[in-house]
Amino acid sequence: MAENVLRLEDVTMQFGGVVAVNNLSLEVNRGEIVALIGPNGAGKTTAFNCVTGVYEPTNGRVSLNGEVIVENHPQAKMKALYKGENQGKYTAVVSHTPDKITQRGIARTFQNIRLFGALTVFENVLIAKHMRAKQNVFSATFRFNAKEEKRMRDEAMALLEEQNLAHLRDATSSSLPYGLQRRLEIARALATGPSMLLLDEPAAGMNPQETQELTDFIRQIREHYKLTIFMIEHHMDLVMQISDRIYVLDFGRLISQGTPAEVQSDQRVIDAYLGVADDAED
Question: Are residues 88 and 127 in the same domain?
Protein backbone atom coordinates (compact mmCIF):
# COMPACT_ATOMS: atom_id res chain seq x y z
CA MET A 1 0.00 0.00 0.00
CA ALA A 2 1.24 3.48 -0.90
CA GLU A 3 1.81 5.78 2.07
CA ASN A 4 -0.52 8.74 1.87
CA VAL A 5 1.09 12.14 2.52
CA LEU A 6 -1.56 14.67 1.51
CA ARG A 7 -5.30 14.10 1.49
CA LEU A 8 -8.10 16.47 0.58
CA GLU A 9 -11.63 15.41 1.52
CA ASP A 10 -14.65 17.25 0.09
CA VAL A 11 -12.82 20.58 0.05
CA THR A 12 -15.03 23.45 -1.07
CA MET A 13 -14.02 27.10 -1.37
CA GLN A 14 -16.75 29.62 -1.99
CA PHE A 15 -16.37 33.36 -2.51
CA GLY A 16 -19.85 34.82 -2.15
CA GLY A 17 -21.89 33.16 -4.87
CA VAL A 18 -18.83 31.81 -6.71
CA VAL A 19 -17.75 28.25 -5.93
CA ALA A 20 -14.07 28.17 -6.89
CA VAL A 21 -13.45 24.62 -5.61
CA ASN A 22 -16.35 22.19 -5.34
CA ASN A 23 -16.11 19.06 -3.15
CA LEU A 24 -12.55 18.26 -4.18
CA SER A 25 -11.11 14.99 -2.89
CA LEU A 26 -7.65 13.75 -3.85
CA GLU A 27 -4.57 12.01 -2.46
CA VAL A 28 -0.84 12.38 -2.99
CA ASN A 29 1.35 9.47 -1.91
CA ARG A 30 4.89 9.58 -0.59
CA GLY A 31 7.53 10.01 -3.27
CA GLU A 32 5.07 10.79 -6.06
CA ILE A 33 5.03 13.68 -8.47
CA VAL A 34 1.35 14.51 -8.92
CA ALA A 35 0.01 17.23 -11.23
CA LEU A 36 -3.18 19.26 -10.92
CA ILE A 37 -4.21 20.59 -14.31
CA GLY A 38 -7.19 22.27 -15.91
CA PRO A 39 -8.34 25.41 -17.74
CA ASN A 40 -7.66 28.90 -16.44
CA GLY A 41 -9.96 29.66 -13.53
CA ALA A 42 -10.58 25.99 -12.80
CA GLY A 43 -9.68 26.45 -9.12
CA LYS A 44 -6.19 24.96 -9.06
CA THR A 45 -4.40 27.75 -7.21
CA THR A 46 -7.40 28.15 -4.90
CA ALA A 47 -6.98 24.47 -3.95
CA PHE A 48 -3.29 25.09 -3.21
CA ASN A 49 -4.24 28.08 -1.06
CA CYS A 50 -6.61 25.89 0.95
CA VAL A 51 -3.85 23.34 1.53
CA THR A 52 -1.29 25.93 2.65
CA GLY A 53 -3.53 27.95 4.96
CA VAL A 54 -3.84 31.03 2.75
CA TYR A 55 -7.60 30.37 2.61
CA GLU A 56 -9.82 28.69 5.17
CA PRO A 57 -12.07 26.44 3.06
CA THR A 58 -15.81 26.87 3.25
CA ASN A 59 -16.07 23.14 3.85
CA GLY A 60 -13.87 20.06 3.93
CA ARG A 61 -10.68 18.67 5.40
CA VAL A 62 -6.97 18.67 4.54
CA SER A 63 -4.64 16.13 6.17
CA LEU A 64 -0.85 15.91 6.08
CA ASN A 65 0.74 12.60 7.08
CA GLY A 66 -2.50 11.63 8.78
CA GLU A 67 -2.74 14.85 10.81
CA VAL A 68 -5.64 17.22 10.09
CA ILE A 69 -4.18 20.64 9.30
CA VAL A 70 -7.31 22.33 7.90
CA GLU A 71 -10.92 21.41 8.59
CA ASN A 72 -14.30 23.10 8.42
CA HIS A 73 -17.76 21.48 8.30
CA PRO A 74 -20.31 24.27 8.98
CA GLN A 75 -23.09 22.81 6.83
CA ALA A 76 -22.83 19.38 8.42
CA LYS A 77 -22.84 20.90 11.89
CA MET A 78 -25.92 22.98 11.13
CA LYS A 79 -27.76 19.91 9.83
CA ALA A 80 -26.77 17.94 12.94
CA LEU A 81 -27.98 20.78 15.15
CA TYR A 82 -31.28 20.98 13.28
CA LYS A 83 -31.84 17.22 13.58
CA GLY A 84 -30.71 17.12 17.21
CA GLU A 85 -27.82 14.80 16.37
CA ASN A 86 -24.47 14.64 18.12
CA GLN A 87 -22.29 17.39 16.66
CA GLY A 88 -19.21 15.92 18.33
CA LYS A 89 -18.54 13.75 15.31
CA TYR A 90 -17.72 16.90 13.38
CA THR A 91 -14.31 18.22 14.44
CA ALA A 92 -14.14 21.87 15.38
CA VAL A 93 -12.64 24.23 12.84
CA VAL A 94 -8.91 23.58 12.38
CA SER A 95 -7.12 26.37 10.56
CA HIS A 96 -3.34 26.45 10.88
CA THR A 97 -1.60 29.54 9.57
CA PRO A 98 0.73 29.25 6.54
CA ASP A 99 3.86 29.40 8.72
CA LYS A 100 2.59 26.57 10.96
CA ILE A 101 1.77 24.46 7.91
CA THR A 102 5.26 25.11 6.56
CA GLN A 103 6.71 23.94 9.87
CA ARG A 104 4.74 20.72 9.47
CA GLY A 105 6.52 20.02 6.20
CA ILE A 106 4.75 21.71 3.27
CA ALA A 107 6.64 24.33 1.24
CA ARG A 108 5.39 26.05 -1.89
CA THR A 109 6.18 28.39 -4.74
CA PHE A 110 3.75 30.79 -6.39
CA GLN A 111 2.40 31.60 -9.84
CA ASN A 112 3.96 35.04 -9.61
CA ILE A 113 7.45 34.85 -8.12
CA ARG A 114 7.45 36.15 -4.56
CA LEU A 115 11.08 36.66 -3.66
CA PHE A 116 12.34 39.42 -1.38
CA GLY A 117 13.53 41.53 -4.30
CA ALA A 118 15.74 43.92 -2.35
CA LEU A 119 17.55 41.11 -0.50
CA THR A 120 20.41 39.03 -1.82
CA VAL A 121 20.16 35.46 -3.04
CA PHE A 122 21.83 34.28 0.16
CA GLU A 123 19.51 36.32 2.38
CA ASN A 124 16.41 34.92 0.66
CA VAL A 125 17.50 31.37 1.48
CA LEU A 126 18.69 32.24 4.99
CA ILE A 127 15.30 33.72 5.88
CA ALA A 128 13.68 30.40 5.02
CA LYS A 129 16.22 28.57 7.19
CA HIS A 130 14.98 30.58 10.17
CA MET A 131 11.65 28.72 9.88
CA ARG A 132 13.36 25.83 11.70
CA ALA A 133 15.35 27.95 14.15
CA LYS A 134 15.23 26.92 17.79
CA GLN A 135 16.19 30.34 19.08
CA ASN A 136 13.57 32.88 20.15
CA VAL A 137 13.47 36.62 19.48
CA PHE A 138 15.30 37.43 22.73
CA SER A 139 18.22 35.06 22.14
CA ALA A 140 18.48 36.09 18.48
CA THR A 141 18.55 39.77 19.41
CA PHE A 142 21.39 39.36 21.88
CA ARG A 143 23.17 36.70 19.81
CA PHE A 144 23.07 34.11 22.57
CA ASN A 145 22.74 31.47 19.93
CA ALA A 146 25.57 32.29 17.56
CA LYS A 147 26.24 28.58 17.02
CA GLU A 148 22.79 27.99 15.57
CA GLU A 149 23.04 31.10 13.43
CA LYS A 150 26.32 29.84 11.99
CA ARG A 151 24.75 26.44 11.30
CA MET A 152 21.88 28.04 9.39
CA ARG A 153 24.26 30.20 7.38
CA ASP A 154 26.41 27.19 6.51
CA GLU A 155 23.33 25.20 5.48
CA ALA A 156 22.01 28.08 3.37
CA MET A 157 25.34 28.33 1.57
CA ALA A 158 25.48 24.57 1.04
CA LEU A 159 22.00 24.68 -0.49
CA LEU A 160 23.05 27.44 -2.88
CA GLU A 161 26.03 25.35 -3.93
CA GLU A 162 23.79 22.33 -4.54
CA GLN A 163 21.51 24.45 -6.73
CA ASN A 164 24.39 26.11 -8.64
CA LEU A 165 23.49 29.52 -7.21
CA ALA A 166 26.50 30.03 -4.91
CA HIS A 167 28.27 32.36 -7.35
CA LEU A 168 25.23 34.66 -7.14
CA ARG A 169 25.02 34.76 -3.35
CA ASP A 170 25.55 38.54 -3.12
CA ALA A 171 23.33 39.47 -6.08
CA THR A 172 19.96 41.01 -5.29
CA SER A 173 17.23 38.56 -6.22
CA SER A 174 15.40 41.11 -8.38
CA SER A 175 18.48 41.42 -10.61
CA LEU A 176 18.42 37.74 -11.62
CA PRO A 177 17.06 36.51 -14.96
CA TYR A 178 13.58 35.03 -14.78
CA GLY A 179 14.69 31.39 -14.90
CA LEU A 180 17.17 31.88 -12.06
CA GLN A 181 14.54 33.64 -9.98
CA ARG A 182 12.36 30.55 -10.35
CA ARG A 183 15.24 28.33 -9.28
CA LEU A 184 15.95 30.59 -6.29
CA GLU A 185 12.28 30.47 -5.25
CA ILE A 186 12.44 26.66 -5.27
CA ALA A 187 15.74 26.76 -3.35
CA ARG A 188 14.12 29.00 -0.74
CA ALA A 189 11.26 26.51 -0.39
CA LEU A 190 13.77 23.67 0.03
CA ALA A 191 15.49 25.65 2.79
CA THR A 192 12.45 25.13 5.04
CA GLY A 193 13.22 21.39 5.13
CA PRO A 194 9.95 20.18 3.59
CA SER A 195 8.72 16.65 3.08
CA MET A 196 6.28 17.91 0.46
CA LEU A 197 6.78 20.63 -2.16
CA LEU A 198 3.93 22.43 -3.92
CA LEU A 199 4.89 24.07 -7.22
CA ASP A 200 2.42 26.54 -8.73
CA GLU A 201 3.13 26.80 -12.47
CA PRO A 202 6.94 26.60 -12.16
CA ALA A 203 7.42 26.65 -15.94
CA ALA A 204 5.28 29.75 -16.55
CA GLY A 205 7.12 32.16 -18.85
CA MET A 206 9.87 29.71 -19.75
CA ASN A 207 11.02 28.81 -23.25
CA PRO A 208 11.20 25.14 -24.35
CA GLN A 209 14.86 24.75 -23.33
CA GLU A 210 14.25 26.27 -19.89
CA THR A 211 11.18 24.07 -19.46
CA GLN A 212 13.20 20.92 -20.18
CA GLU A 213 15.90 22.04 -17.75
CA LEU A 214 13.20 22.60 -15.14
CA THR A 215 11.77 19.12 -15.80
CA ASP A 216 15.17 17.58 -15.12
CA PHE A 217 15.62 19.83 -12.08
CA ILE A 218 12.32 18.72 -10.51
CA ARG A 219 13.29 15.07 -10.97
CA GLN A 220 16.66 15.74 -9.36
CA ILE A 221 15.29 17.48 -6.28
CA ARG A 222 12.67 14.76 -5.83
CA GLU A 223 15.40 12.15 -5.66
CA HIS A 224 18.01 14.18 -3.78
CA TYR A 225 15.71 15.52 -1.06
CA LYS A 226 13.32 12.52 -0.99
CA LEU A 227 10.40 14.85 -1.67
CA THR A 228 6.78 14.34 -2.57
CA ILE A 229 5.82 16.92 -5.21
CA PHE A 230 2.37 18.30 -6.03
CA MET A 231 2.31 20.80 -8.89
CA ILE A 232 0.07 22.96 -11.03
CA GLU A 233 1.30 23.31 -14.58
CA HIS A 234 0.03 24.32 -18.04
CA HIS A 235 3.03 22.96 -20.00
CA MET A 236 1.70 19.56 -21.00
CA ASP A 237 5.07 18.27 -22.20
CA LEU A 238 6.43 18.78 -18.69
CA VAL A 239 3.32 17.32 -17.04
CA MET A 240 3.23 14.20 -19.19
CA GLN A 241 6.97 13.57 -18.85
CA ILE A 242 7.26 13.91 -15.11
CA SER A 243 3.94 13.06 -13.44
CA ASP A 244 3.16 9.74 -11.82
CA ARG A 245 -0.52 10.69 -11.63
CA ILE A 246 -2.68 13.62 -12.73
CA TYR A 247 -5.87 15.22 -11.41
CA VAL A 248 -7.96 17.43 -13.70
CA LEU A 249 -10.19 20.27 -12.51
CA ASP A 250 -12.84 22.11 -14.49
CA PHE A 251 -15.04 24.81 -12.93
CA GLY A 252 -13.83 23.70 -9.50
CA ARG A 253 -14.86 20.08 -9.95
CA LEU A 254 -12.66 17.02 -10.42
CA ILE A 255 -13.46 15.61 -13.87
CA SER A 256 -10.67 13.05 -14.31
CA GLN A 257 -7.73 11.39 -12.60
CA GLY A 258 -5.19 8.73 -13.48
CA THR A 259 -1.86 8.17 -15.17
CA PRO A 260 -0.72 10.61 -17.87
CA ALA A 261 -1.80 8.16 -20.58
CA GLU A 262 -5.24 7.68 -19.02
CA VAL A 263 -5.86 11.39 -18.58
CA GLN A 264 -4.55 12.26 -22.04
CA SER A 265 -7.06 9.90 -23.64
CA ASP A 266 -10.05 10.97 -21.50
CA GLN A 267 -12.56 12.70 -23.78
CA ARG A 268 -13.78 14.92 -20.92
CA VAL A 269 -10.26 16.26 -20.49
CA ILE A 270 -9.80 16.73 -24.22
CA ASP A 271 -13.05 18.67 -24.45
CA ALA A 272 -12.44 20.79 -21.34
CA TYR A 273 -8.72 21.45 -21.59
CA LEU A 274 -6.29 19.57 -23.80
CA GLY A 275 -8.00 20.66 -26.98
CA VAL A 276 -7.31 24.31 -26.14
CA ALA A 277 -3.79 25.75 -26.12
CA ASP A 278 -3.63 28.29 -23.33
CA ASP A 279 -0.57 29.17 -21.32
CA ALA A 280 -2.04 32.15 -19.51
CA GLU A 281 -2.15 32.41 -15.74
CA ASP A 282 -4.83 30.57 -13.75
Answer: no
